[in-house]
Fold:
Amino acid sequence: MQYRNPYEPPQSALPDAQLDSESDFGDRRPVSVECAFWSNTVSAALGFLSFVLRGVQEPLALAAAILTFQLAIGLMIRWGVNWARYLYLTLFILGLPSVLLFQHLLAQLGPYYFTLLCVQTLLQILALSLMFAAPSRRWYRRRRQGSSSKHSDENCSHSA
Structure:
């Protein structure tokens, strides 16, 4: 009878190489990236709804530019542009203190607007957590490795 250590971590029935090949996404984006995109889109739509419900207090061009920028970043994230995830994270981190510091001013707009802002913030946190989840990270890594190998192949063909 073979002795088994009860504190030994469980073993996988499949070798690591086979697990890696099975988790290959190919051209498909993972559900986590898709859900992050839609979470960002709903957050942007709620921001636009809040703008419309409050009446025009800011210039319309500014609101349209912010909405367009947020949707463009969301599309780049969906298309697999890796730096767009980090830009989204940076902008979120830079914007979060203003929400926390000026929450008493935001609450004066009324409970509906404050609730919309809280829901937007939660949707953005959800989008960020999905963008940096393990399946998303693997997908972005594979896309980056695929694009770098394409560029090196193109460089080799141009030099020949």
